[in-house]
Amino acid sequence: MTALAVEGLRTEFRIGGAWHPAVKDVSFTLARNETLALVGESGCGKSMTALSIMGLVPAPAGRIAAGRIVLEGREITGLPEAELEKIRGDRVAMIFQEPMTSLNPVMTVGDQVAEPLIRHRGMARKEALKHALGLLEEVKIPSAAARLSEYPHQFSGGMRQRVMIAMALACEPAVLLADEPTTALDVTIQAQVLGLLADLRARHGTSVLFITHNLGVVAQIADRVAVMYAGEIVEEGPVHAIFAEPGHPYTRALFATIPRMDRAGQDLAAIPGRVPALDAMPQGCRFAPRCPLRREGCERDQALVPVGAGHRVRCHVTTGALADA
Question: How many domains does the chain have?
Fold first, then answer.
């Protein structure tokens, strides 16, 4: 059963009196108890996709101009704010990228974890705090009972991220949006957080949209991968297919930037250029100005073309080569 379906999502921002898409015609599905990794450089629209699902696109500068977001069979696109508030933190929750700016500095950690339980489950504060203690223990915060009354600044970065996870999972949501939850953490804490998310997903059956730019994390945690560039999904497929045979030049370029431990004296690769600004998007393939395979036809709009079981690529050059092979 599908927990989340996004169909033709287009999120726009107003710049210089005109609307420009930050997320353009994005479609994907997320099955129950599945992890879909959304991958790409900073500025590619990954976080804006998650914020669009949560109904947190900042107005009036931004808007959802088209598309449908269906959560557990119910379309939530364009719902009034009062209705969205009933859903956020309950059926869909989000772990934000930077916990220090996402947690309230003047509320205790216990009260912040208890808040969704009071709001969505109607618990009394004492009962909610008791449940919050269990959640902090579940995310493996040491001496959780003593730390319940402490404030965010008294926690390390890794512990703050665990508090964010506890808050997000308080009401056992059907869908969890994790926006680069390991970016600011060292590799040891990162591994602990990834293991924790995998354990919690197995225990609660939660569907996870995991946003990251780290392909090593993708290999460890994801079932499927959607590669995003300049607001568009350029490649999508099972994790083993993407890693075994990446089809889009951008996906290949991302893999080329990963240092190889089995090679001595290698040069670090980089993708030339940068992600284009919203008001300066190229015609047709948005990656073409940075692409070593650019040729005639790239100036036309590209479609996601099937190249294997569940594997689709938005590139006429590589899909044509795969078809000829």
Answer: 1
Instruction: Evaluate whether residue 322 is within a structural domain.
Output: no
* Tens digit of each residue's pLDDT (9 = 90 or more) over 252-273: 999 988 877 776 767 778 889 9
pLDDT, tens digit, 9 for 90 and up, residues 162-199: 899 889 889 989 999 999 887 767 777 778 878 888 88
User: How many CB atoms are closer than 10 A to CB 84?
Assistant: 15
Written as one string, the DSSP assignment of 53-86 is HHT-PPTTTEEEEEEEEEETTEE-TT--HHHHHH
Stated length of the chain: 325
- Please answer whether residues 219 and 239 qualify as being in contact, where contact means their C-beta atoms are separated by less than 8 angstroms: yes
With a pLDDT cut of 70, the percent of the chain lying above it is: 97
- Say whether 25 sits in a helix, a strand or coil: strand
Which residues share a beta bridge with 5? 29, 70
- Which CATH number belongs to the domain containing residue 118 in this structure? 3.40.50.300
Strand order in the sheet with 2-15: 18-31, 2-15, 62-71, 74-75
Q: Which amino acid is at 87?
A: I
- Which are the contacts of 5, defined by CB distance < 8 A and separation ≥ 6? 28, 29, 30, 68, 69, 70
203 occurs within a structural domain:
yes
87 DSSP assignment? H
Establish if 113 belongs to a structural domain. Answer: yes
Domain annotation covers residue 303 = no
Which stretches of the chain are DSSP H helices? 46-54, 81-87, 99-102, 109-121, 125-138, 144-147, 157-169, 187-204, 215-221, 239-244, 249-256, 316-324
